[in-house]
Structure formats: C-alpha cells, structure tokens
C-alpha cells in the first residue's frame, strides 16, 4: 500500500533505533491488521544487548540536550510538528490499518500529536519557578526546575502514537531524552513515528539518542521499569499492569505517571438536552470499538427519560455501519484481535449470569477480521461485571431516581478517569463538579467522556493511577524541583535565628 511506502514501512523493519540508527534482530514480531486479519509486516524485537546500547546512547544525548536553551528545544519540537503535518494522512491511515479505529479517528490521533507539539513549543518558554522572600537579610531564595534524564514511555495499542507524543513532546522541551516501548500489537506505528522524528534530528545535526525506540513483549518493559538509569516511567495500560509497574519502579524509588483503566459514566438528567446526550453517548460508547480508556461504559439515566433514551439508542445502534475502518462510510471498525473479541463474549455471558439483560447487539460478525456488533445491556451498577472495565463496545444502561443516588452509583467503582453529566440545570451541574460530586480526574458537563483536549491535564484517580499528562502544569512531572538560596551579603545569618559562632 502506498501509505506504508511513504512512511518507510517495509516487509521487515528494525524495531530498535536511536534516531536514524537502526539495529537488526534475529527475533521479530508480526503485525496484523484487525480489518481482515492479514499480516502487514514484521518488526525486529529488542535484544538485551541492544537495549543496553540504547540506554547508553540516551545518556550521552542527555548531556547535550539538557544544555540547549528550552526555547531551542521547543523549536525542534516545532519542526517535529511540521513533519507530522506533512505525514498526517499516511500516518493516520497506518493507525487505522494497524489498530482498527476508523480513518477519521486515525487522522484525529495524528492531529493530537500536532496539537501537543504546538502546546509544547509554547511551554518551552514557560517552565517557570517561583521567587520567595528569605527570612535572612541580604539573601535571595527561589526555585527552578531541571530535567530528570531519561524518560521511559510505555504506551498501549488503542492510541499507538498520540499518547507517546503527550509524554515525549512535553518531556523533550523540559530537557529530557526518551526511550519508547509501544504495544507489540501496533509496532509499525512506533517504527513510522521514529522515522519521522529521526528526520528532524538529522536535519538539525542533533544526537541520535534523544528519541529512542525499543520493541518487544513484557520483558522489554520490565527492563525499563527495573532500570535505575530511567528516573521516570510513564505507562499506559490496564490496572493490573499498572500495579506491577508502580511496585517495581517504587522499589527503586523512581517516579511514575500511570494512566490505567477507566469505567466511565454519563449521567443523563431529566433536565438534559436528550439529543445532545445521545450523540455524545454513542460516540463515547462505540468509537474505537469501545477500546478507549475514556470510552463510555455506564449510562446512568433518570427514570423519567429512561425509556426515551433506551429507544433512541436502540434505533441508532441498529443503523451503525460496521466494517473496513479505511472506508469513509464506516462508523465502527474492528476490535484489535481475537482475544479482545473473546473477552467481550465472556462479559456478555457474565451480564446474563448476574441477572442483567443484553437488549441489543454483541454478536461476532461473520467476516474476515475482528468485527462485533456494539451491545446495549440493562444492568445494576453493583454487578461484578459492571464494576470491571471490559475493553469492548458494551454500554450498560442503569436507572436512577435522585441525583444523590446517581452520584453514589457513578462514584461506586474502583476506577476514576472520565465522567460526564448532561443537564441544563445549573444546580445539578455545579453539584456534579463540586467536591461532593464526581471523583474522577476529568468531569464534564454536556459533553461526553471521550475526546479530551490537550490543553488540560489528562489523567484519573483511584485505580486509574493518579498520573497527569499533556496540558496544564503536567510538565512538572518530567522535571525535578530545586530550591536555591543565594547569600549576597558579607555575613552568615542562619535560619530560625540560630546563633552558632565558631
């Protein structure tokens, strides 16, 4: 396919690189498109020897990169953004072809990369510290921020390029260098992005070890999490994975940014704009075939509008186009692989066993690829299966009477990523956003749970991990804080008025 060639993707691709320097490997993994299950290409996996070389190159590059003024680092990120604009269409197609999200979402993911580059360029001139009044005369006290060193990024299949950029672009302007391990389910996306970034490094005669790529299974990720030379690990994935990463990195007193599971709910009030709520719900529930961490999983509906909402959803679900994600008319593409389809089927069986009812969809479609029909189910919030995050297009419908009851159900799960309420009542909205309201890291009024903008800090609470990426002051997670005091006088007064004459 032409878009693969334009990105430099070949039949056999190296999966380990420092800038433009690639390393061949005898071992490899194959990438398959979920649209028809066919093999796309192979990617070499990183050996332990290659990993050690990558870390050594990253350490060397850091000594150069950290000395560049932050605005100059920002200009390199600006150039990366320009290169991504140039390759937006083919890279968007690759995301769609290898991951399975529809083409519009693939383009949107690359646009997120471009947007975060733009954001990071501005951030490069705003790495602010504070000045403070010293209690000692003729002293100046302030704080400043320094880069950490190597930032390890472990990303998931569902956003195979955007989440890397959220971390890498901010970390880069802060003066760090990066080692990226993408998902073994979408390795070609990592190869393509690395090639794009390497062009910018080469054009600016920069060290190759600023942006690095490693490829492989869980073992490669474990090398990173156990490595004391990598002070920060940013990992996106399941809560189970996050527990392991958090425990391992904490044991060496390293830092983590963890973006883990979501069990996101929308509350639809009797005071809602129902049509607006329905549109947001469908996009959140079936977009990316339910495989976003911000996908809408639970719909908590006021009893007075429950039947109306249910009927509208049934009608819309019956007309959703499912098929080839590169087809512009498709709204729902395939799931990532056979294992994901099987997990969905197990969840649907659990719904029935626990007393719920699947009222629409859930079938596996008899086509090449991993296609399913998005499902609607009537359940109670306390069912075990509803308490879990199933990475699939299953939307749970739950009825409520009062806002207090809705909030108890809304917050009554272990995850805490994204949340929404649809209401035109100011008091309901403000209560949802108050300290007594949503316990999630993201809380919205009259927009859905998916589609976060890069200007705000992204992340969640509880078992979602508590990390923050992208906008606001998330840059601080990629830096170390240093407090400085300068004595510009000719005496040595001590703090707290201590008298210590020698």
UniProtKB/TrEMBL annotation:
Aldehyde dehydrogenase domain boundaries: 26-483
Domain of life: Bacteria
Listed SUPFAM superfamilies: ALDH-like
Pfam family, one: Aldedh
Catalytic residue positions: 259
Molecular function in Gene Ontology: aldehyde dehydrogenase (NAD+) activity
EC number: 1.2.1.3
Record-linked InterPro entries: Ald_DH/histidinol_DH (IPR016161), Ald_DH_C (IPR016163), Ald_DH_CS_GLU (IPR029510), Ald_DH_N (IPR016162), Aldehyde_DH_dom (IPR015590), ALDH7A1-like (IPR044638)
Keywords from the UniProt entry: NAD, Oxidoreductase
Keyword Cell division carried by entry: no
Gene3D superfamilies, per database record: Aldehyde Dehydrogenase, Chain A, domain 1, Aldehyde Dehydrogenase, Chain A, domain 2
Protein family membership: Belongs to the aldehyde dehydrogenase family.
Quaternary organization: Homotetramer.
Name assigned to this protein: aldehyde dehydrogenase (NAD(+))
Organism listed in the record: Gracilimonas mengyeensis
